[in-house]
TrEMBL record:
Pfam families associated with the record: Ldh_1_C, Ldh_1_N, UEV
GO terms, biological process: lactate metabolic process; protein transport
Function: Interconverts simultaneously and stereospecifically pyruvate and lactate with concomitant interconversion of NADH and NAD(+).
Matches recorded under InterPro entries: L-lactate/malate_DH, Lactate/malate_DH_C, Lactate/malate_DH_N, Lactate_DH/Glyco_Ohase_4_C, NAD(P)-bd_dom_sf, UBQ-conjugating_enzyme/RWD, UEV_N
GO molecular function: L-lactate dehydrogenase (NAD+) activity
Residues annotated as domain UEV: 1-101
Reaction catalysis annotation: (S)-lactate + NAD(+) = pyruvate + NADH + H(+)
Domain of life: Eukaryota
Name this polypeptide is given: UEVLD enzyme
Species whose genome carries this gene: Centropus unirufus
Length: 436
């Protein structure tokens, strides 16, 4: 898998009959995950050396197969037989393979070798660039924002205003035609901003911002989160397909859980899946310390960590310069008093769409420009503060073009660690009740 993990999986290799004028036997390969039947198989074409891949709506250059049936997979109505039937129907509309001339056979052998590496979990970027003709799009900074609600539109406007991206795509997944803010964006067209309902418009994004949230009538908090998970099951595979090297930036609620869901569904490495976390609260906290309380030295090492909401915790970077234990205790007491005053000022300041949008623009700017700036963002917390479960919590991290470059060490504070462990426990318990 893309995150470096390995599993023994069941593999089916064979052919399916496809009528396209004549009748063809299309060679395919299905990998059945250990989470079957709750998760869809991973599907590839398996062309011979004399076959070329026709890249299209349902097949990429490496032979990976993408179908609505896979995106909408739901046990028990979804089955392997049903998948194969849809695969045949879609391939009869658009044949995925063609016959190569002898002069193309050598290049096809190289492509097949690369496909073999992909299915074994090895990604060779040099080989990929060679196969695609050496096209270099590294200088083009493209961001996709998924979701055209108030938060999505706020993110588009603030990212465009920041000027870090060469292009911003707003992916509108709502039913019906353009309305509200989306229509206004179309009327007052902004340079370098595109509005689309097609996932292919997101292709080759450097950062994908997820802002979608379920707006239905679920009865319980768990139902609401499960509905968000169901939304993401139809979004993340398509986003991962079109932008396999992107950094996923999650702003959907609850951000810790939805960042975990995005990580699991995308199979991206942990450094490339982050949540907006406590970045906004931390920036506000540091601003209050510097400008209202005039505590300049404290501000640069002060952070809000943990969960969003009432369970957030203040913390400090590990850089205690006190000469002895008595001085260290005095420093800690001073910081706690100032922090409590700052938290009092911070309390009650909600997170409006435009303020979260400004925070998102700040994060994308650090990523695209490889600023190596420290932000408090939701990242995989396993191994930190004696947390042993796979949960995402806000922690100070250095951000760059690959997402999280390094996690910054916090000061040893038993009370802070206890609160983080408590948050991790409650989030993990909630995650265990979700159906991914």
């Amino acid at each position: 898998f893309k995150d470096g993990s390995q599993k023994d999986l069941l593999n089916f290799s064979g052919t399916i009959p496809v009528k396209y004028g004549n009748s063809y036997n299309i060679p395919i390969q299905l990998w059945i995950l250990d989470s079957h039947p709750f998760a869809p198989p991973i599907c590839f074409l398996k062309p011979t050396v004399n076959m070329g891949i026709s890249v299209g709506k349902h097949v990429d250059a490496h032979g990976r197969i993408y179908l609505p049936y896979l995106q909408n997979w739901s046990h028990p109505k979804s089955t392997v037989i049903g998948l194969i039937k849809e695969m045949i129907a879609k391939f009869e509309e658009e044949l995925p393979l063609y016959s190569l001339s002898s002069s193309d056979a050598a290049r096809q052998s190289e492509l097949l070798s690369y496909i073999a590496k992909i299915t074994e979990g090895e990604t060779d970027m040099k080989s990929k660039n060679k196969i695609s003709g050496g096209k270099n799009e590294g200088c083009f900074n493209k961001i996709t924002v998924v979701g055209a609600g108030d938060l999505g539109i706020a993110c588009v406007l603030t990212i465009a205003a920041k000027g870090a991206a060469d292009k911003v795509v707003l992916l509108d997944l709502s039913e019906g035609g353009a309305k509200g803010g989306t229509m206004d964006l179309e009327i007052f067209a902004l340079p370098n901003v595109e509005i689309s309902k097609d996932f292919s418009a997101s292709a080759d994004s450097k950062v994908v911002v997820l802002t979608v949230n379920y707006l239905g009538n679920a009865q319980t908090y768990l139902d609401v989160i499960q509905s968000n998970v169901d939304l993401f099951r139809g979004i993340i595979p398509a986003i991962s397909h079109y932008s396999p090297n992107a950094v996923l930036l999650v702003a959907s609620h609850p951000v810790e859980v939805m960042t975990y869901v995005s990580w699991k569904l995308s199979m991206f490495p942990k450094n490339r899946v982050i949540g907006v976390g406590a970045n906004l609260d931390t920036e506000r906290f540091q601003y209050i310390l510097r400008n209202l309380l005039k505590a300049h030295l404290l501000a640069k090492d002060a952070w809000i960590v943990g969960e969003q909401g009432e369970d957030k915790v203040t913390s400090w970077t590990s850089c205690n310069s006190a000469a002895n234990q008595t001085e260290a205790m005095a420093d800690r007491n001073t910081r706690e008093k100032v922090a409590n005053r700052a938290m009092g000022v911070l309390k009650g300041r909600g997170q409006r769409s435009w303020s979260v949008g400004l925070s998102v623009a700040d994060l994308t700017d650090s990523i695209l420009k490889d600023k190596r700036k420290v932000h408090s963002v939701s990242t995989l917390a396993k191994g930190c503060c004696n947390i042993n479960s796979e949960v995402f919590l806000s922690l100070p991290c250095i951000l760059g073009t690959t997402g999280v470059v390094e996690m910054v060490k916090l000061e040893d504070d038993p009370l802070m660690q206890e609160k983080l462990q408590s948050s991790a426990g409650s989030i993990h318990d909630l995650q265990q009740q979700l159906k991914l």
